[in-house]
Design goal:
about 130 residues, 2 strands, two-stranded antiparallel ribbon, mainly alpha, single chain, 30s Ribosomal Protein S18, elongated
Length: about 130
């Protein structure tokens, strides 16, 4: 055996491998990270996982209410603070009603009931 090989340094196939010469391999670097220590990862939480509640489309749940471009108060909750239309994943609307909602928000903007940009948002307060 050569001097750089030690009996405790074996690969899974049983071969001896030389001692590290200062170059750290990918596995050594990943093991040195603070987040990889199992004792540090387990801190708190009580062991319960948090699952997000599934968002339900407001328009599907309330069949009697309709989307109307002449009612900007009901459309404002689907606009961000920068007057952008919120995505489905954030509002929970279904694809069908998101398309209709987008169409009505654009119509309302054409009539001047809703703002296009944040320049006109000084008195605009979205409801959440």
């Amino acid at each position: 055996m050569s001097s750089d090989l030690q009996p405790g340094n074996t690969t899974p196939s049983g071969e001896n491998r030389p001692e590290s010469t200062g170059n750290t391999s990918f596995t050594n670097r990943s093991q040195n990270r603070a987040g990889s220590d199992p004792a540090k990862r387990q801190g708190g939480g009580g062991g319960r996982r948090f699952y997000n509640r599934r968002k339900v489309c407001f328009w599907c749940a309330n069949k009697d209410s309709t989307i109307d471009f002449k009612n900007p108060e009901s459309l404002r909750q689907y606009l961000s603070e920068r007057a952008r239309i919120e995505p489905r994943r954030k509002t929970g609307t279904c694809a069908k009603h998101q398309r209709i909602l987008t169409k009505h928000i654009k119509r309302s903007r054409q009539l001047g009931l809703l703002p296009y940009t944040t320049d006109t948002l000084k008195n605009f307060q979205p409801r959440r």
